[in-house]
């Protein structure tokens, strides 16, 4: 059976790419562990590698936005990865992403966020 690293080899290093300071890495690692079952469920559903890779790209953006927001608002003490993800995504999509430039990409990002929201609601 495949795992997320088979589709996006950089998956384990995402927390390092999201950090502002070294203290951010454990929070990123916690986010990754909440994201992992979602990615694994897409693999088990038999979605195409290209589709999963696209969703994972948007998950990477989402994680970066969450870590950035946590860092800006100094929420390190109260940070719970699953709660942070649940707060960031909803039935209407995700947050505005500063790295997305265009409505079509934002809609695709929101699609991934809605899928994650649905997954988190069921788990």
Question: How would you describe what is shown here?
Answer:
This protein has helices spanning 4-7, 14-18, 25-44, 49-72, 81-88, 103-122. It has 123 residues and is mainly α. The longest helix is centred in the middle third of the chain and has 24 residues, at 49-72. α3 runs antiparallel to α4 (49-72). The chain contains six helices and no strands.
Which features does this protein show?
66% helix; 123 residues; globular; 0% strand; mainly alpha
List the helices and strands and how they pair.
Blueprint: H1 4-7, H2 14-18, H3 25-44, H4 49-72, H5 81-88, H6 103-122
Q: Strand fraction band?
A: under 5%
* Continuous helix count: 6
| Shape designation | globular
N to C succession of SSEs: HHHHHH
> Roughly how much helix do the residues carry, as a percent range?
55-70%
Oligomer: single chain
Query: How large, in whole angstroms, is the Cα Rg?
Result: 14 Å
Ends distance: 21 Å
Question: What is the mean pLDDT?
Answer: 93
User: Low-confidence parts, pLDDT < 50 over ≥5 residues?
Assistant: none
Q: Tell me about the biggest sheet? A: none
Total strand segments: 0
The class by helix and strand makeup works out as: mainly alpha
Q: Briefly, what is this?
A:
The protein is 66% helix and 0% strand. With 123 residues, the protein is mainly alpha-helical.
